[in-house]
Design a protein that fits this description.
mainly alpha; Glycerol uptake facilitator protein
Amino acid sequence: MGRFGGEMVGTAILILFGDGVVAATLLARSKAQNAGWIVIATGWAFAVTLGIYAVAQFTGALLNPAVTLGFAVTDVIDWGDVPYFILGEFAGAMLGALLVYLAYLPHWGETEDPGLKLAVFCTGPAIRNYTANLVTEIIGTFILVYGVLALVYHFGTTNITSSSLQSALSSSFVPLLVGILVWAIGLSLGGPTGYAINPARDLGPRIIHAILPIPGKGSSDWEYAWVPVVGPIIGGILGAVVYQMTFPPGMAF
């Protein structure tokens, strides 16, 4: 399985379960309707865990362009692989969103609020303040990438490379711990923006929302769409760079 195919499969699984739990919670006449934020945050945590387990042995399971760019800037992965990773991540995010749409096909017409339909696919701020929303996404993605590298360092090697990353993320516990990290981010930092922390997770499904024939869907909110792309990219790069500065390769105690 190549970089493109692996990232596509892993990200599709991520979005299928992640957007799926949002659909279950928000859409009318779903058996899980109104289950609440804790269920959504937990579903996304499991979504990340299962996406990593599915393809870590093939690609390292980055599943996120912000993580991909952060790892490329710090030489964990080769720049030549970046286009394959990112294209696979966006393709997988769109595929996963399409599958969620099909799984909940009768419920779109039963749901009156167009905002709830959009929220199944992508994030939106609780209070629309682009500067504050951007800062929230930067902080969330910073701690995501910094935390992933810390886990890989702990279970892998002091010299984090593409192969050691792949080895660590293929271990029994690391994907589960990454899921717990995402769970913590959702519970603690997800309130202001819905914690995209992943450009593909937000933009890919937003595009699917725009093109699908969802009854009464309303706007795809393109005015906000740049925030969950730019913020995670900045946060992901900063998280990787600061981690490398804090614990340079070969450092041990």
